[in-house]
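Suppose a colleague, Dr. K., hands you the sequence of a protein chain of 385 amino acids and asks what its three-dimensional shape might be. Before reaching for any lab equipment, you can write down a predicted structure in token form. Begin with the sequence itself:
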Amino acid sequence: MSDDKDMGTNQGGYDEDVPPPPGDEGSGPPPVLTDTWRTVGEWSDKDNANWLRTKPPDRRFLLSVQDDQEGGKPQGVLPLGRVGMLAAGGGVGKSWALIQLALSVATGKDWLGTFEVNEPGAVLLALGEEEAQEVWRRLYWTAKALDLSDDDCALAAEHIVVLPLCGKHVALTLSPAELRGTNVGPSTVKTIETVFARELRERLNNAGVDWRLVVLDPLSRFAGPDVEIDNAAATRVVQCFERLTETRGNPTVLVSHHTNKASRAGTSSAGAARGSSALTDGVRWQANLDAKPNPDGIGVSDLATLHVEKSNYGWFPPELWLHRDRDCSGVFRAASKAERDDYKEACGEAEVVASTEKRRVSSEATARAKAEKDISEAPSADLFE
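The predicted structure, expressed as tokens, is then:
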């Protein structure tokens, strides 16, 4: 697909297919700017279009959603060929949501009953914490919840490559200690990549399909050991993700990551992702998946919310309420208005009960303090003897 190939301009500034300048052969990694040092006029010549006078191609989106404020006009949400992140607390359902997305992209069915898939196609589903039978279970229950037809299942079976990687070393970047032992010379994206990263990229390029989505779940398995505490290391792993977007088809690369403790206390934001801020800064799109607590504040309910917190190129859709389908092992679906209203009403009633209980405890404490004060201020019996 020639348009896809053009779309994959080297974001990391490195192209192993471009020969080094004369005299530099064999002197180490190719210069970073070999394929990017051009004037605006030279870029215009390359694209056969005047960059200053010709309207550029519309941005392509993997997912879009209808804007009710604009008469149902589709708005792009998740861009194609860019790096994004889904952040959530442990056990909230990141893997379920991403497996649902994989099936949606492979079949063309809406994701979570809300987001339209603009460009269905091949998906790589790399699950770093799961073994094969667990992936089987999740795919089965997701397909059941989505009510996939036989034709849909055939499409999914053909278009999804699934990698159960539990127990395997799948970091994409070398640790500082490993880098010190390589004697690789100047640091480039290539020099900090692991063998696994190169194999992954080669397999994507040689699979004979145009990829639409690459899922890496979770980031902690695919990143180096210092990514969450070192901004430089975090930036390097984002560059590795960007190189995956340059593979055949220019897929979106979506990684999952854990949120920090503050966000789990109800202060979710673009900074909710755990660890280095360079992760959120580096990705072009981020959505947070937050579990809703039970109205009494004990444990979590079957409801969750999905909200886009960062979108460099697309639209910010309204917050989406989700409901876990316990009959299908916890697969998400869009929550109904009645479910949302019932939850909010229950939370309001719980708040009234909690407020009443707080006033009761406060009143008892005040009465007890007054009684203790009265006793302490009472005349001693010895004064009257």
